[in-house]
Design goal:
heterodimer; A: 332 residues; alpha+beta; 9-stranded mixed sheet; two-stranded antiparallel ribbon; 31% helix; B: 77 residues; mainly alpha; 4 helices
Chain lengths: 332, 77
């Protein structure tokens, strides 16, 4: 169960803090960057879908890491903004990437904890000898759900796709997958939600709701109750980290690098201080991408590897929409 | 727990605070560094550090840092 390569793709179109400031003059450019740690995000083009982005990330993976795509015998695509309600977008990826028909392809609907989930499913497929080389793609275009007047979500979220190969061979080994832990609190389902359009509320009849003249929500769009998410995260992530360490028979001091879901810099620092993690052991990569949902952890891993920081025990923790948490240790 | 200790812990939640000294008369939302994200962090910190679980409405209605200190005393008992 080895990570054999990670690559990522960012859409061409960008959204800078200066552009956000033009739409929301009350938010200074400096304030946005000092608080969120984000200077720029990438936004999928109108005619660019999650499968298009997934293809680009996968092609980069094959080229950058010298991977023969004929070896791939399973695709897992993690997304919450698929091309269609059905079919499964991973099947479209199989066709667009011209992969062998003798492979499995499945989507998983999960957000910020989705990459860790994908790694666990890949490990399961390898351990059960159902596959030898699993292509895990995360591809998310939340921008398609975000209302133009939604200052917070436009500031935080960016679109991106990543591709990781998880293999039973240890070629170009970036690390070995150790034990996982998961946690779910579905009672918080409506703290981060696109309410309208699916089975429960099929009609896209949402209206813009303003509170004290400030845009609050439209049920057709992505809604995030930042306070609920902050509270959940602050309370549960430290517990997740503890459980993960126990499960892997490690102490906090034995972790060489912590790679958390890159929600926003302020919240990440709050958690870092709360869990008491040294700043140099806490990897942050947000500046040019923002919060890219299930892609934040693989993008951070890519850059940690480029900087020679993927060494020893690496702790991954994803958390958010669901509400959901997932963690794993990677050993290099 | 003193007012000064509470302010020290609150300033830890600000990003690079270089503003004026905060007194009990300082209006919370007059501080440049204060925004909704900071508010959430301070409310959580007061719970973690001072065992004061302040309800959202009371927290929102606190005008000065003196008001906030009274709330901490009230809810930490």
């Amino acid at each position: 169960m080895y990570l054999r390569g990670i690559s990522y793709y960012l859409p061409e179109k960008t959204l800078s803090n200066e552009e956000i400031n033009k739409d929301f003059p009350e938010w200074s450019v400096d304030k946005i960057s000092s608080k969120t740690g984000i200077y720029n995000r990438h936004i999928a083009a109108n005619d660019e879908t999650v499968s298009d982005m997934g293809v680009k990330a996968s092609q980069k993976l094959f080229n950058e890491w010298g991977i023969n795509k004929g070896e791939i015998d399973f695709i897992i695509l993690c997304t919450q903004s698929p091309d269609y309600f059905l079919p499964t977008t991973a099947c479209i990826l199989q066709s667009k990437l011209e992969l062998s028909p003798a492979i499995g392809a499945i989507d998983i609907n999960m957000g910020c904890s989705g990459y860790v989930y994908g790694l666990s499913f890949a490990k399961g497929l390898l351990q059960s000898r159902s596959a030898s080389n699993v292509l895990l793609v995360t591809s998310e275009a939340y921008s398609k759900y975000i209302h133009n007047q939604d200052k917070s979500n436009r500031t935080i979220f960016g679109d991106a796709a990543t591709a990781t190969l998880i293999s039973s061979d240890n070629i170009n080994d970036l690390g070995t997958l150790k034990d996982f832990v998961f946690e779910t609190d579905g009672s918080g389902y409506n703290s981060l939600i696109v309410k309208n359009g699916a089975g429960k509320h099929p009609s896209q009849d949402g209206v813009d709701v303003y509170v004290d003249g400030v845009f609050e929500k439209n049920d057709n769009n992505l809604y995030m109750n930042g306070k609920d998410i902050f509270n959940f995260t602050a309370e549960r992530v430290p517990v997740l980290v503890d459980n993960l360490l126990k499960r892997n028979h490690l102490t906090k001091e034995e972790i060489d690098l912590f790679v958390f879901h890159q929600a926003n810099k302020y919240m990440m620092n709050f958690m870092r201080k709360k869990i008491n993690i040294d700043e140099e052991k806490f990897f942050v990569y947000l500046e040019n991408v923002g919060n890219t949902v299930s892609s934040t952890i693989p993008i951070a891993l890519y850059h940690a590897n480029s900087q020679g920081k993927l060494k020893g025990n690496i702790l991954l923790a994803g958390f958010g929409v669901g509400l959901s948490l997932a963690g794993v240790i990677i050993q290099k | 727990m003193t007012f000064e200790k509470m302010i020290e812990k609150i300033i830890e939640q600000f990003v690079d605070y270089s503003g004026v000294q905060i007194t009990s008369e300082t209006v919370i939302r007059s501080i440049d560094e204060w925004d909704s994200l900071t508010g959430m962090a301070v409310q959580l910190m007061l719970k973690d550090e001072f065992n004061a679980q302040i309800p959202d409405e009371d927290f929102r209605n606190a005008n000065t840092f003196g008001d906030l200190f009274e709330l901490v005393k009230q809810y930490s008992s």
